[in-house]
Amino acid sequence: MSSDGRIERARQAYERAVFGGDPGGLDDAWRGLDAVEADVALARGLIAHARFQSAPGSSPGSSPGSSPVEDPAELPSFERALELYRALGDTRGEAEALFWIGCLHQFIRRDNETALPYLEKAAQAGDQATRSEALRHLGIAAHAAGRLDEARDLLEESSRLRREAGAMPGVASNMIGLAYIAAAQDRRPDALAILDEAHALASAHGAHAIVHHIEQARTRI
Q1: CATH of domain 127-221
Q2: Cβ(169)–Cβ(202) below 8 Å
Q3: Which of 7, 55, 100, 153 has an alpha carbon within 20 to 30 A of 116's alpha carbon?
Q4: Domain ranges (residues) in the chain
């Protein structure tokens, strides 16, 4: 049911209870509003994360002194979503919230140690989209730790799931990581070929930000 539908159902439950003397729908309506609140909390966290990611200085290689600032509302938003989804028994939502908490610790706070348990749980419990995201970020952590073969396997599995879902810009994004891994394994021709394929894929799907990151990677490999 949509958020609008859940809110309308709560209004109807109120009227039945207050005017009709039938309070039977109040608990169900309350749970529906918890689901709305969970979705809103997750969405607020996503907006805060996107603002951080879009701010000057957020991408690798940005000029010193231009680092973006974490929104203090982001983590509480994701944690509130996690709390509500868990109470509702919504395992899909719970896994998504777990992923975003892990992503915040990894991407914003540069703390893979704290991020890993969240990402691992999200990879185990999430739907296809969340699992692909979690595997990507587990691959990033493995790459940072120097476990290149493991990182490659994780990114390739994430890419497989993204291809199945038709999320081609996400596939192109993963290919940037695979190119860096290839370069670290002294496979520079493979790395450049991967970037060429990623560029064509991202351009075909209008993923302009991914194209920019591909061009940056090409200058570093």
Answers
A1: 1.25.40.10
A2: yes
A3: 55
A4: 1-54+74-111, 127-221
